[in-house]
């Protein structure tokens, strides 16, 4: 696991300082719940931010969470490129496993081939 040295998130007048980790490929596969599409690196990162915020008993909307995660992600690209690359590596490895499981079909209701 790769730990961020110290990252501070200020939200609702509460300061959260908590290191977080990059999930491994098995964790990514396990929290997909039957999905046939693997998450990209930003979605993996956003999930990690959401987990840290939830662990502190805070609740925020998806839009706010995405904006917060995006701001942190942009900062990390400049200051912690190894962390960003770690998320990219996990996402790419998970994608290879998902693609290796077979074709990806998406069911669309009401559509018919004639």
UniProtKB/TrEMBL annotation:
Q: What is this protein called?
A: 11346_t:CDS:1
Q: What is the lineage of its organism?
A: Eukaryota, Fungi, Fungi incertae sedis, Mucoromycota, Glomeromycotina
| Superkingdom per UniProt | Eukaryota
